[in-house]
Amino acid sequence: MEEIVVVSCTNRPNSNTLKVSKIYHDILKSKNVDVKILDFCSLPENIAFAEVFGKRTEAYAALLEKFVLHNRKFIFVVPEYNGSFPGILKTFLDSVSPKDWNFKDVCLVGVSSGRAGNLRGLEHLTGILSYLKMHVYYNRLPISLVDKIVNAEGRFIDEAQQAACEAQIQGFLEY
After folding, report:
1. Could you give the CA distance from residue 64 to residue 66 in angstroms, rounded to a whole number?
2. Where are the domains of the chain?
3. Predicted confidence (pLDDT) per residue in 107-144, tens digit
4. 7-174 CATH choice from 3.90.1150.10, 1.10.1660.10, 3.40.50.360, 3.60.20.30
5. Given pLDDT bands bounded at 50, 70 and 90, which one contains residue 52?
């Protein structure tokens, strides 16, 4: 079975997005899936200027080699920022050649402390990913009130939310 990359799509330290990404990692591990997390906190601080328009540092080239170029399946855990998704995610997507995203599978998880679980941001992102010729898994899961349903240990306190995530992952594995 191929490896899945869970992408924590914010560079905010100690974020709920990373906590949810770790939950997804653990669920995948429990299903004996090879998985790794790309935490956007590990992206270069100057990504918007140093890693775009054909420029590439050796360290960033190694990061892309490890997490993007040789992987076919991704789970993007995407927080809501101002009614959409974080700018760092768009910068990251733009820093990679479009052909390197073509025909790869992606599953989307929205994260928000509000009621809609970043549905609007997932819609915006779906359009971009479709433009990049990625296959977007149909079951886009919004996780609302994340700050209230994830405990201090980084686990869901809501069994229904855990079950919804497990069902989404199972469907994506069969996708």
Report:
1. 5
2. 7-174
3. 999 999 998 999 999 999 999 999 999 999 999 999 99
4. 3.40.50.360
5. confident
